[in-house]
Each structure stands twice: as C-alpha cells, then as structure tokens.
Design brief:
Layout (H helix, E strand, L loop, with lengths): L3 H20 L7 E6 L4 E7 L21 H10 L4 H12 L3 H7 L3 H11 L5 H19 L10 H12 L8 H11 L3 H8 L7 H13 L4 H8 L5 H12 L6 H13 L1
Antiparallel strand pairs: 1-2
Helix pairs in contact: 3-4, 5-7, 7-8, 10-12, 10-13, 11-12, 12-13
Length: about 260
C-alpha cells in the first residue's frame, strides 16, 4: 500500500467483507490478502496457516539458552539502583514529596550529590530544598551539570548546618551559597570573610532596636502597633533587619520588639 488512505480503505473493506462472510455462515481463513487500488477491494494472495508455511526455522548460531533463577538473582544484585526504586526510597527514607524525589532521581549525579550531603548529618528536607531551589538555579544559569560546579555536597551540608545552628540567617544564606558556587570557598569561610554571621546577641540587637524605635520615621508604625495593628510590627521588624543588613536573628528581633513596645 502506498498511502495511509489506502490502508484506511482496505481496513474498511475487510471489516465489511468479514462481517458479511460471518453473517452468511462462512469462516475466516488465515491468509495474506492484497489491496487492489483501482477496484477498491482486497483479494486473496496466498494461504498460510502454520509456522512452517512462513519458513520459520531455528537460528543455528543461537543455541537454546537455559537461564536459572539463581543466575538471574545473582545478576540482579550487581545492578545499580534504578530511578524508580530510588525515588520510592527517597520518599520513604527521607520524607520527600513525590515531586522532589522524582527531580532528584532523574539524574544519578544529582541523586548522589544529595545523598552525600545528607550523609553529613543534616536535615534531608532542608538539603533537598536548598539543592533543588538554589543550587540548581545557579547550575542552570551557568549552563553546566551539577558535577561540574565548584560546590560540593559537603558545602551544601555546611550551609544547612550554619542555618540550623543559627549562625547565619535565611536572608544571608543565598549570598553565602552563591559565593561558594562561584569560588569554591566553603560557606564557613565566606561567612567569616564577608562578616555574615547572624547577630543573636540580645544587647547588641537591643541597641539597634532602640535606635529604630527612636527614629521619627517609625513613630506612626509604633502608634499603629499600640493601637492594635499587628501588621505594623512587620514594618518595624524590616527596619531592624535593614539596620543589621539582614544579619539579625529574626526570632530574637521579634521577641525584643514586642518587649520594647509593651513597655
């Protein structure tokens, strides 16, 4: 057949032919039929009923192969973990969502990077979040693969650990990560060099908060908060974070602000 239209016409003809044949008590025989384009019909070409009619015969260069169950299992143990089992394991063992697990296991290099970071003893979920959101953003922007970047699983784990211990804030963490990505320097070294350590000293923060609360530009927000507008606290919080260049411990800042405004 030389066109899809001919195939369609031949099928339609055969459907009708075989239906009429069966309705008349006939029998459908196993045969090869050809399509006659000019007449719009199929015609019998040859009858073939068994395998020998098609000249099937064993391949002499491929003798029968007996595969034992033991051999199959032995080979199975040597296979690497495939993406689907790995995805299910990531969900069950690390508590990841189906979407995050699927993204991480789409690449062996990415999955290995993630597991190496988690092996450092940091939060699996936090590691996945920073890897999928921030590290991959930098990798994609650079047009490289994860294994070609200067950042290592140990760097990622160190960043998460700095966050978990409160040594840096969520606001400064992206800056630390980007510097590590660009230079290969450890997050700890970047924090030290750029002075990005999170400020948690209450006396130091209290001084900054006092300065913010005394500023004329903030008096309306103070009055609004005392009048019951909880959202005004966010304005004052932002002013403190701006004063500290985002390095202040957010939890301590909010607590001190409430204490100061209540007095």
């Amino acid at each position: 057949m030389n066109s899809f239209r001919s195939v369609q016409r031949a099928l339609a003809f055969e459907i009708e032919r075989q239906r009429e044949l069966l309705e008349d008590g006939g029998r459908i025989v196993q045969e090869t039929r050809g399509w006659v384009e000019e007449r719009g019909v199929t015609v019998s070409q040859r009858s073939k009923e068994e395998a020998h009619d098609y000249r099937y015969f064993p391949e002499p260069d491929l003798p029968p192969l007996a595969v034992s169950r033991e051999w199959v299992e032995e080979i199975r143990t040597r296979l690497p973990e495939l993406p689907e089992p790995k995805r299910r394991r990531f969900m069950a063992h690390y508590g990841l969502s189906a979407e995050d697990a699927a993204t991480l296991t789409a690449s062996r290099a990415l999955a290995n990077f993630y597991e190496a970071a988690v092996a450092e003893g940091v939060s699996p979920k936090a590691s996945a979040n920073w890897l999928l959101r921030d590290v991959l953003r930098l990798v994609n922007a650079a047009g490289i693969e994860i294994e070609q970047s200067k950042i290592t699983p140990q760097h990622l784990a160190q960043l998460v650990r700095l966050l978990e211990s409160g040594q840096i804030s969520v606001r400064s963490a992206p800056e630390v990560l980007e510097e590590t990505f660009n230079t290969g320097a450890s997050p700890e070294a970047v924090v030290k060099e750029k002075g990005l350590s999170q400020v948690s000293d209450t006396s130091e923060l209290d001084t900054v908060i006092q300065r913010v609360l005394e500023a004329p530009a903030n008096q309306k927000a103070i009055a609004d908060y005392k009048a019951g507008k909880e959202s005004a606290l966010n304005f004052l919080f932002g002013a403190v974070m701006k004063e500290t260049r985002g390095k202040a411990n957010p939890g301590i800042v909010r607590e001190l602000l409430r204490e100061r405004l209540a007095s």
